[in-house]
Amino acid sequence: MNDLELLKKLREETGAGVMDCKKALEENSNDLEKAKEQLTKLGLEKAAKKSDREIKAGLVDAYLHTTGRVGAVVALGCETDFVARTEDFKKLSREVAMQAAAMKPKDIEELLAQAYIRDGSKTVKDLLVALTAKVGENIIIKDFKVLEV
């Protein structure tokens, strides 16, 4: 795989910026796995720096399972309406609602700690951290409810 293909693959897998991906690949001798680890660590650091920022916007989203017997509503918060309207933010809110409907956590802390239903190597918190690093805003789950018949 050439350098450009590696860069593209790393960006697709992590959602990190071009310059961050390029730097991670250079510092890790084009080792994709080590570069991903470095970017994950960088994302955690960026998210930690933003965690005290005020949440003023967000989105309420719902997921209804195909059986019609279980559903979830989630309120996902961010700093600006601009980010709340992005496709990435909308996708995250839908995924969190689906996660809640499938796993029925008792509170936000349990939801954040759960293995993501589409990729068990990640937690729900990892999803929030990744988008926080990508968009540069604090993102939180403000509330959720699971309804079941």
Task: Characterize the structure shown.
- The chain has a 3-stranded antiparallel sheet. Strands 3-4 form a two-stranded antiparallel ribbon.
- The chain has 2 domains: about 5-50, Ubiquitin-associated (UBA) domain (Helicase, Ruva Protein, domain 3), CATH 1.10.8; about 55-149, Elongation factor Ts, dimerisation domain (Tetrahydropterin Synthase, Chain A, 2-Layer Sandwich).
- It is of the alpha+beta class.
- It is built from 7 helices and 5 strands; from the N terminus they run αααββαααββαβ.
- A hairpin with a 2-residue loop joins β3 and β4 (about 120-125).
- The longest helix is centred in the first third of the chain and has 19 residues, at about 30-50.
- The protein has helices at about 5-15, 20-25, 30-50, 80-85, 85-105, 110-115, 125-135; strands at about 55-65, 70-80, 115, 120-125, 140-149.
- The radius of gyration is 16 Å and the shape is globular.
- The protein is about 55% helix and about 20% strand.
